[in-house]
Specification:
Largest sheet: 9 strands, mixed
Mean pLDDT: 78
CATH superfamily of the largest domain: Periplasmic binding protein-like II
Number of helices: 13
Distance between the termini: 46 Å
Helix content: 25-40%
CATH class of the largest domain: Alpha Beta
Number of strands: 15
Order of helices and strands: EEHEEEHHEHEHHEEEHEHEHHEEHEHH
CATH topology of the largest domain: D-Maltodextrin-Binding Protein, domain 2
CATH architecture of the largest domain: 3-Layer(aba) Sandwich
Radius of gyration: 21 Å
Shape: globular
Low-confidence stretches: 1-101
Amino acid sequence: MRRSQNPPEQKESPNRRDILNKSVVLGAKVITPGQVSQISDSSYQYAPRRVESVENESELTEESETDYRDTDQSEGMARDDFQAEDNAFTPESNTFTRTVKVVENLDRVICLLDYEVKNGPVYTAMKELTPSLNRLGIDPEFSSYTDVVAAEKSFKEGGCDMLMLPDYLVRKYNPFTSTFSAVGAIPDYKHLNILLKTLTSKKASKLMRKGDYEIVGILPLGASFFYINNRENERPQNFNNLRIAVSNYAPGLSYIANLLEMIPVSVTDRAAAGMFNAGNIDLTINTNIDYEYFNLYQGLGGTGGILQFPVKQLTMQLIVRHEDLPSENFSQNLRDMFFAQHRTILHKESDIPGNYKIYVDKSILDVWGELFRKTRISLREQAIYDPKALTLFRKVRCKVNPNRDECVSSDRE
């Protein structure tokens, strides 16, 4: 039986910012975060909320008036430009609200990475999108892989026409969209909705292509959170010497593990949940969809919990070779469809038992927020996070909350 526990009393730590001022060796580089600026009470709006479920409909559909025309790659992406382009495909009616040119009976093999093969969240979501793909004239065949090397090999050799990977594995195909995985960059689903809507615009299409490849769909699987086996470990200082699963594909997490002097355990993404459930690591980062798929309540036990602030957003991204696109509108139509359906997918997040939810004090959230920001800046300087993507993400955060300290910081993204 799961034991219900109340969150421990939150107390301010006099040394809560010390951990942000140390140097970190990541790979062959030494990174010095430098002096951390003071954060005002209105900087980070991480009020306790049920972040594991989609925001209410009115909030999700709220129009943003942000003008992105002062961003290099985003010239002309003002909200006025979206009026004729948004909601090309509505999930409520599954019908188009504007005329599009479709390709009839187009057979396409889609290779996708899902660690549960045909029983996992990615395969399930794509199967549910099949009717929407059919309406675009696409007859999909899904080929599910548990190994990214095998999936990419099949794509490279022509065994599949499209490849769906998590954002953090997309860097070689598109550094901009891969930066969706940047820690702390997209605080909640309101921010995510604005970004997806922005990037679905035709004016953003040039950001979706790099070289021979194009991103034709972004499928969000929800926010990722810290799952910890001891609910008292909520402050960054408490993470010292804790064992955490780190893969070669997670530079943000590797940086944080070094910064907080944790014990990184090198594992594949697929093995991390099993190690957490077996007690071989102390914490992991997972979405709420993963809670049931990987039985993460086993690792949480009676003493663990889930810190209720997103570490990052997880998206799956659909990659095609640009030369294989059958028509001029094909990629844009697909992006329209994925945007229109993304809230339907997010509604499938697991209902986490209340006793596992750990709502932390705002002063602690401020420290985490600044730690995430310093991490993003460092990885930007190492050419891991795309600077234009980080700038766009920051503009959205500052539009939603102009009082954030980062909005006027000299080292803002």
